[in-house]
Amino acid sequence: MCTALTLKTSEGNHLFGRNMDIEFSFNQSVGIIPRSFEYKNMSTNELEKTKYAIIGMITVIDNHPMLADGLNEKGLACAGLNFPGYAHWESELSEEKINVPAYDFMLWVLSNFETLEELKPELEKLNLLDSRINNLTPPPTLHWIITDKTGQSIVIEKTKSGLRLFNNEVGVLTNSPTFDWHLTNLRQYIGLSSNQVTNAKWSTQELKALGQGVGCVGIPGDFTPASRFVRTAFLRHFALANDKDSMNISEFFHILNNVAMVRGSVRTPDNRSDITQYTSCMNQEKGIYYYNTYNNNNINSIDMHKEDLNAKEIKLFNYEDTLKINNQN
Amino acid sequence: MCTALTLKTSEGNHLFGRNMDIEFSFNQSVGIIPRSFEYKNMSTNELEKTKYAIIGMITVIDNHPMLADGLNEKGLACAGLNFPGYAHWESELSEEKINVPAYDFMLWVLSNFETLEELKPELEKLNLLDSRINNLTPPPTLHWIITDKTGQSIVIEKTKSGLRLFNNEVGVLTNSPTFDWHLTNLRQYIGLSSNQVTNAKWSTQELKALGQGVGCVGIPGDFTPASRFVRTAFLRHFALANDKDSMNISEFFHILNNVAMVRGSVRTPDNRSDITQYTSCMNQEKGIYYYNTYNNNNINSIDMHKEDLNAKEIKLFNYEDTLKINNQN
Amino acid sequence: MCTALTLKTSEGNHLFGRNMDIEFSFNQSVGIIPRSFEYKNMSTNELEKTKYAIIGMITVIDNHPMLADGLNEKGLACAGLNFPGYAHWESELSEEKINVPAYDFMLWVLSNFETLEELKPELEKLNLLDSRINNLTPPPTLHWIITDKTGQSIVIEKTKSGLRLFNNEVGVLTNSPTFDWHLTNLRQYIGLSSNQVTNAKWSTQELKALGQGVGCVGIPGDFTPASRFVRTAFLRHFALANDKDSMNISEFFHILNNVAMVRGSVRTPDNRSDITQYTSCMNQEKGIYYYNTYNNNNINSIDMHKEDLNAKEIKLFNYEDTLKINNQN
Amino acid sequence: MCTALTLKTSEGNHLFGRNMDIEFSFNQSVGIIPRSFEYKNMSTNELEKTKYAIIGMITVIDNHPMLADGLNEKGLACAGLNFPGYAHWESELSEEKINVPAYDFMLWVLSNFETLEELKPELEKLNLLDSRINNLTPPPTLHWIITDKTGQSIVIEKTKSGLRLFNNEVGVLTNSPTFDWHLTNLRQYIGLSSNQVTNAKWSTQELKALGQGVGCVGIPGDFTPASRFVRTAFLRHFALANDKDSMNISEFFHILNNVAMVRGSVRTPDNRSDITQYTSCMNQEKGIYYYNTYNNNNINSIDMHKEDLNAKEIKLFNYEDTLKINNQN
User: Domain A2-198+208-316 has what CATH class?
Assistant: First the structure.
């Protein structure tokens, strides 16, 4: 499962990224998809061409970039998060609509649009299909969070009832169920606060706090999507509310660390450990992709503007998964 | 507030360390206290001399090393964690007992003993005093966790009822209340598990899990000492139970990240943000001190055996608190 | 707020009823509305006539029976539960549809239909209106649970998106949000169980249960609609699963007692105490209405078949709200 | 397991009673033990004689009254609650102390003392023994709550570390662990309140309460002793704080209903249903014993002052366990 986050820094930049929680590696690495990169739309069998260059976490399958999350040169960013039991794709091509395989949705968004404003009206015209990139790769079960340099974000969910677009005012996304369910769920927790409650008197008994954090007692600590949504929304809100002047990349990683999956504590039905394979954080203004991995918490960065965005091929960067320690002596 | 942890690596080394959660910096940095270092016992006004060299997180006040946590050259390690409302020190010197200021307890332990076995019988002879290092520095309110190369750990608490020693079989310590209260509290949570519950039928309604992590629903997510204790004990146990062969420094930091305080979400009564200033992790066999900080998640390391342990002075290392990023292009 | 419940007894009868949670009395009492009782439909200004006799908790306003919950002579039963922020009524009459004021929905259902099968297709034809019985009485904000002698139940919700009918397989209803949200919320709790967990070993620490009930740790104890829904669904399921042969009126009241509001513990925004004014329980086969009140826990009963169901007028019974104690000496 | 409660009524009377939670009937019924009733102390083999008459829930074994809870003619009242894993009795008679079998503790208290003030100094002289009333009946594992007409209450616990007396300022007792652990545990919940939180804004998202009760979110809903203690202490405090003028027998039963065990939901290790067999409530000023049972929620009452307290024999009253309904027609 996964958790995505947006955060405005004290300097006015916009950060966007996610925890990728999954029990196996999918051969991912940061890559840059250049402008005018051609790829085949497996639903229509037609060739498509990217307009904007993209940096993101990519798995290349049959020379096709499968994005987990990414950012384009205009500052539009997107992440796909698992949405099992809800995601539903069409199997029939539509003559009136834009036919896009569900696995290519992020590529379509990031390669064609500059802003949410530009994107939103096009989303209604979309026909998302269950086509496969190849026989070995089943269609994904995703919903998406998309954000641009305004800091606004939206969530796109395609279920059996059709495609829905939500304005996302909490800047968070996790997994199933649907986004509106999670928003309603937050309403259970509005009594929680970052403020300390130092003491109370119940009947005639004086009761003092045992330590900081009493105002937040009741927040769930498990790793289900609903609980991660509540915790992330809580942490983001109170970070911005209390310490707006200290928002930076470190804060971004701290928030996502709280909902990261620790090896051993979350087991899949087939008894493997679901872990946070990597955490990404993109600076939308600067075009920089930051990430660290389960085995290497040191943050790596790749600046798309240091590369040739008109290159012919996808450029992949080494996935730095070996612990990098700063030896002070 | 704070959280301490012990963890045995897959290679058989023993890791020990802690989150330091506090709303301000106390001018800390890693330092090495050499063998035969002399300092004044402010309770007795006598000079003391270290037997073993120590590496730890230190604040030097009046040329005196105040330890937050540390490790000696024999692999004995100790951390002090806040214990407000419970810690109690004597104000009278004892003629029969060993008089040690409470603030020097860790220094006394690490500079004199090699193992828990050697230390334990001496603890009974201890008279812990409320002496101050100087007028500006009040006595601390601490309890301690101590561990050696056997991987065993103990907790020392001195309250108004006297000094108590607990064997610590869960390898975790947080803050108030007393250790035995926390152990009893764990018994509330024995129904929780890392295993997934995939579905159930309540009345005639089929209910499927929305995502991984259902077996752990009910674990508290807040930052009070009790909740951090439960989460850390849960994560440590299931890490070792399910993935014993993947235990290493990364795992150690992942566990402590889960209970780390995120800026903004935990406010002190005077409305400041309690944050995890640093996380430390000591390899007890190798004599290496690892740490990262709130502003710099990159792990730093200092190997005590690369230094002259017979030096005359305390050696301090730079506190690396500026974000260090690995630029891949 | 309120909680409704269905339960099949060991003898094969079907019980249906509810907690009425509200901070004031609304002059309610059990009443019987006879067959062929005439009343004005305030939306159409036409006279309507009941087909079936009804027993229920009633407030008579302007000679009009306002039902809180009730049962008809055919065993069809219905309760209205507060649904603030979601309930939405039309303001325009429809020419094609059956125009019914929202406040008369229960009267319309119970006076016209025998079974859910008969009722369901008619619900689509319904136009629920915001008409008022008089100027002093605003339209209600309700959703409804309806059940018949098959033991099946349905939930009817009319929001801005239209009228929805849900099959209710958990036999429970509380308040906002919508029924499908609550069903999804149950999926968070499928790891909970009535079974005892007696011991566990976390790391090397043996941990024994402190008392019964460990398998249910994590269930929320507050009085919000979501928490009452979870608790009631849990209690109903495990009662039927473990003790199907002991299901009777007592069990029905025990389940609802668990989610009943205790004076003082739930305060409204204007600082009054929300309490469970009464609990009702109808035997659908026998036509008996049982209830007790906040001030009188003794269960009262009224058997509709002991009355003349062809009477001209509504017959009201005394609301027994004074504590009735059985003096044994 | 069990829950005990004290409550001062609006009229100034003191109520005391408990839920008896157990998976089987123990042949209990209300009985009156007269003044000067003789019984054998099985530890000393001497005859004892009651000074004050007692009314309580009794099982008579070999003509010996085993009390579950009771009240004497002076208004002193006591209840024994299960305390497994902690209760410890002596096996050796003491020459200096008063030797009392643990199972006779309540009988000794109620038959000899008028007030807590009178009782407290005698408790130190007590040697509680593991003697048995007969071979078939093992010693109980209990701790006790005792209260008098001042409304004050105390808790008595005898563990391996000796006998401890706690002043009970919250007016509640449940089961294991020790009373001081529960008091400390309450300090986790001091952020909870009966007051409604109507809305909040997290980030830019407005969040409205879904229903009443938001200030109490985080309170545990399960049936473990710790959770029942928290809920009962919460309900008692806020009842008295918000509605002191409505405190009466009904309120007493409402509070205990919230923590009563519902059949099916709490299973013992040998898979039987732990249920609240009865709830008792004694008016300490009036000498009246009220109770209802799992199968009969109608409250029964027995007034000790209507009986001959100088009778020779224990008088037992019928245990009214058959549902008593008030038929209104």
Answer: alpha beta
